[in-house]
Write a structure and sequence with these properties.
By secondary structure, the chain is α+β, with helices and mostly antiparallel strands. It has one domain. Helix content is 44%, strand content 29%. The protein has five helices and eight strands; from the N terminus they run ααββββαββββαα. Strands 1, 2, 3, 4, 5, 6, 7 and 8 form an eight-stranded mixed β-sheet that branches. Helix 3 links the parallel strand 4 and strand 5. Helix 1 packs antiparallel against helix 2. The chain is elongated and about 80 Å long. The protein starts with a helix and ends with a helix. The relative contact order is 0.15.
Length: 253
């Protein structure tokens, strides 16, 4: 499942935007961040990205982004693909003018993911991921031609991905909601050289991908086993069922 990569793509966009605007200090900073995330996010994902509220205080080194929603691509019926109640960033203000920006904490709390399956190989998250890969490639190529802008590097002292839920909607198995385990990472990157946004994203998304795959794989395996057991049970005679129950009782002693 590609949930983790979707999350990672959003994190990349947020880190790049916030890291860039920290050098700008404009009076309409919050509206600028909101507009950029919605515009760039919609272009990258190929679907609507909306953000309800932004509250960034540069001098205090703190930022909060509330109710970020990535809509579904055309052809899917669920309410959205990805929704985040709260994203908070704590930045060391002293590092703003340094070559490596120190992000003391990134916390994504209350993320809600809806994986809507059309078939085994077609789902809403994969559609967004394909679009994201395509547009990120063209974006990287264009940025590589512009050598005038300095490369922003980061180190993250603490990353928290908490209270996340994933809902799987499948024609074969119906609907099921999963609680994703919390993910906590520390000291991502080196203080001397830092990480590029791309490197930082890779460091953040790997555990999310692993967690999402484990949760969904476990669900599908359990569903498949239950389905198989149901079919086998239908074919067994009452005599065979009695024998199996007797064997179970012997093993459970």
């Amino acid at each position: 499942m590609s949930t983790g990569k979707i999350v990672g793509g959003i994190i990349l966009g947020l880190v790049v935007i916030v890291g860039t605007v920290l050098f700008v200090g404009l009076s309409n900073l919050n509206e600028l961040i909101k507009t950029n995330i919605e515009t760039v996010g919609s272009e990258l994902t190929g679907t609507s990205v909306t953000l309800a509220e932004v509250d960034v205080k540069i001098t205090e080194g703190h930022g909060a982004l509330n109710r970020l929603v990535v809509a579904n691509p055309a052809g899917y019926n669920s309410a959205y693909a990805f929704s985040m109640n709260s994203i908070s960033l704590d930045i060391d203000p002293r590092s703003i003018t340094e070559s490596v920006i120190v992000i003391k904490n990134i916390t994504i709390d209350g993320a809600s993911i809806i994986a809507e399956q059309k078939s085994l190989s077609e789902n809403n998250l994969q559609t967004i991921l394909d679009q994201l890969k395509s547009n990120s490639g063209s974006s990287s190529a264009s940025s590589a031609e512009d050598d005038s802008s300095p490369e922003v590097r980061f180190i993250v002292e603490q990353f928290n991905f908490t209270n996340a839920k994933a809902q799987v909607i499948s024609p074969q198995y119906g609907e099921k909601e999963l609680n994703m385990p919390a993910i906590k990472l520390q000291n991502i990157g080196d203080k001397a050289t830092g990480l590029t946004p791309e490197q930082l994203t890779q460091a953040l998304i790997k555990p999310i991908i692993a967690s999402a795959k484990a949760q969904v794989s476990g669900l599908l395996k359990a569903k498949a086993q239950a389905k198989l057991a149901e079919k086998l049970n239908e074919k067994l005679s009452d005599k065979d069922k009695a024998k199996i129950d007797k064997l179970k009782s012997l093993f459970n002693r």
